[in-house]
Design a protein that fits this description.
mainly alpha; two-stranded antiparallel sheet; binds zinc ion; about 110 residues
């Protein structure tokens, strides 16, 4: 193996090792947080009654567009007053307006 080849081989090996280690070390916490978060959304869907209209633009929830439960203050409490049932468009606008999602930023 030449020095040139070693240069290209080594980072590849390192990144694979690093990825593996990182996954193992961070998995419990990361998984826990994710489960907690999606668990809450399940709970919301089960306990809150969907609105017939978007709470922001008043568009009918007629199945022609996606509706989401949007948390107003992003504290994710289980208080119905902290949530709004809105169409996907208003949900995105709301999150941008409240700095939750930066425009053009990918997750
Ligand atoms: Zn709307």
């Amino acid at each position: 193996m030449t020095d040139q080849e070693r240069k290209y081989t080594k980072p590849k090996f390192n990144s694979g090792w690093f990825k593996h280690q990182k996954t193992g070390a961070e998995n419990p916490n990361w998984k826990g947080n994710k489960a907690k978060h999606s668990g809450l959304h399940c709970w919301i869907r089960e306990h809150f009654t969907p609105e017939s209209k978007c709470e922001i633009c008043k568009r009918d929830n007629d199945g022609s567009t996606l509706f989401d439960w949007s948390n107003k203050d992003h504290k994710y409490s289980r208080d119905r007053n902290d949530w709004q049932h809105v169409c996907r468009k208003c949900h995105i606008n709301y999150d941008i307006k409240h700095n939750v999602v930066k425009p053009g930023r990918k997750k």
